[in-house]
Structure formats: structure tokens, C-alpha cells
Amino acid sequence: MTLNEPGPEPTPVLPAPQPAPSHHHGAGYRLRTYFLTGLVVAGPLAITVYLTWSFVTWVDDLVRPFIPVAYRPETYLWWRVPGTGLVVAFFAITMLGFLTANLVGKTLVEAGETLLDRMPLVRSIYKGLKQVFETLFSESGSSFRRVGLVQFPAPGMWSLVFLSQPPGGEITVRLPLQDEYVSAFTPCTPNPTTGFFFYVPRREVIELDIRVEAAAKLIMTAGLIQPNGGPETQKKLQAMADTARAAQGMRKEPETAE
Questions:
Q1: Residue among 141, 106, 148, 113 at smallest CA distance from 127
Q2: Residue 2: pLDDT above 60?
Q3: Partners of 201 in the β-ladder
Q4: Looking at the chain, which terminus has fewer C-beta neighbours within 10 angstroms, N or C?
Q5: Are 117 and 185 in contact (CB under 8 A)?
Q6: Is the peptide bond before 190 cis (omega within 30 degrees of 0)?
Q7: Cβ neighbours for 182, distance < 8 A, ≥ 6 positions apart
Q8: Sequence-ordered list of residues with C-beta below 8 angstroms from that of 209, at least 6 positions apart, any chain
Q9: Are 181 and 167 in contact (CB under 8 A)?
């Protein structure tokens, strides 16, 4: 090698990788984390205890005037025993149901209903409330025991619905299609006591194998608590999605031809 020839280029030295900065959270961050964790644990428990205690106290205050003073526990104790009115109410309602199931009880109930039928305003209120209670608490009824999916409020948007009984004869005759209809109620989030009620053809409903309680939690939490659907539900959802895509393709073909 002569003096005019350049020498070999030096190998570049790469800088050593810097270690990842360690995040040291202060005492305020840890205190906030501990507080939120405790709130998640104590919040539902406190609300549950408060609601239960309020219900028991309300029933006790409602039933206590009908209990003779000699039979009240606080007459012989230094403190009130919570739940006494609730036990008395449960026993009284059970005995009422037992007596109503017998012939004598049915006769008395029919006589009382005949008397109420003669009162114009009371008659309508009693009949409406009786029908609601029979529908909600009847063991043979089918109201709100099934959950489904329907396209609501627009095509392609799916909503959870609670399925109840089919419509009556007069409504069935007036419905446009000669299909089997079912009553559907879709609750609102986060208050499931309000919502929309409508009739929908049964063939347009995807019935889900989830419990009504799980669907109510899904609605009240805006999808944060997801129920686990079985394989049959997944198959139904996939089949409905394929049908919807095929229908959309059929609608686009005439538009393209034009």
C-alpha cells in the first residue's frame, strides 16, 4: 500500500441502547389505585345492603300496625327485630294463596271480584293490575322468558329484545303479513324499565340461549358485561349475517344493471 492510497474506513461505533426508563409512581397514584379498588369492592356491597335494609324496613312499617302489640317481639325485647313484618307478610300471602286454591277460597274471590265489577273506576284498575300480575308471575306464562335479536331501529342495527306472548286475535288479523308474530320489548340503556314495544315476525327474530337476567345486565351496563353465548347462538348469528349480506348483494345487482 502506497502513501497516496486511502486506508480502510473505520467501523462506526453504534451507541449503546439506553435502558427503558422505569416509571416510579408516587404515593398519590398508589393512593388513588387503592381507593378505586376499595370502591369497586365496597360500592356494590353497600348499595345491596342499603336496598335490602330499605325494603325490609318498608315492609315492617307496613305490616306492624296489623300485628297485635302482644305478639310484637319488641314488646318483650329492648330492641326491634328487623324482618318480623316481612316474615308475617310472607306467611299471610302464602296462606292466601293456599285458601284461594280451594273451592271455598275461589268462591270468596269470585264474590269479591263481582263486587269490584260494580265499581266503575276501581274495576278498570283492578282488572288491569290483575292481568299484569298474572302475566308476570304465572308459571305457565311465556312472557319475558326468552331473549332475541331483531334489526332495530334500522336495517343492519341489531337490538336485544325480550320476547313475550303472541298478539291477540284482533291484532293478528290486522297485521299485514300472514306470518307468525311475536311480541317484543327492547329496553333502553341504562334504565331497562323504559323502552319500545312492537310486534315482529318470528322468522326475523334470532332467539338467543342466554338468560333474561344476563341480557338485562348487558343492557344496563351498555355492553360492559357480556354474556357467554353457546355454539348454537354463534351459528344463528353467522347464518343471519350471511343472509343479510346475500340480500344486500341482490339489491345492488339491479342498481348496477340500470
A1: 113
A2: no
A3: 181
A4: C
A5: no
A6: yes
A7: 163, 164, 165, 166, 199, 200, 201, 202, 205
A8: 229, 230, 232, 233
A9: yes
Confidence class for position 54, pLDDT limits 50, 70, 90: very high
The DSSP annotation for 53-91 comes to HHHHHHHHHHHGGGS-GGG-GGGTSSS--TTHHHHHHHH
- Tell me the pairing of strands 195-201 and 206-208: unpaired
How far, rounded to the nearest angstrom, does the alpha carbon of residue 250 sit from its chain's CA centroid?
A: 37
Name the more confident of 122 and 51: 51
CB 191 within 8 A of CB 161: no
Cα–Cα distance measured from residue 92 to residue 87, given in angstroms and rounded to the nearest whole number: 9
C-alpha R_g of the chain? 33
What pTM does this model have? 0.55
Cell digits of residue 180: 307468525
The pLDDT tens digits for 12-30 are 555 655 655 555 567 888 8
DSSP secondary structure string for all residues of 122-175: HHHHHHHHHHHHHHHH-SS--TT-EEEEEE-SSTT-EEEEEE-PPP-HHHHHHS
Q: Measured over all CA atoms, what is the biggest interatomic distance in the chain, rounded to whole angstroms?
A: 129
For 178, list phi and psi in degrees, rounded to 5. -90, 40
The answer to whether 213 and 240 are in contact (CB under 8 A) is no
Would you state the cell numbers that stand for residue 82, as one nine-digit string? 328487623
Return the closest-CA partner of residue 134 out of 183, 104, 97, 172: 97
* Residue-wise pLDDT tens digits, 141-151: 555 678 888 88
Q: Bigger pLDDT: 129 or 137?
A: 129
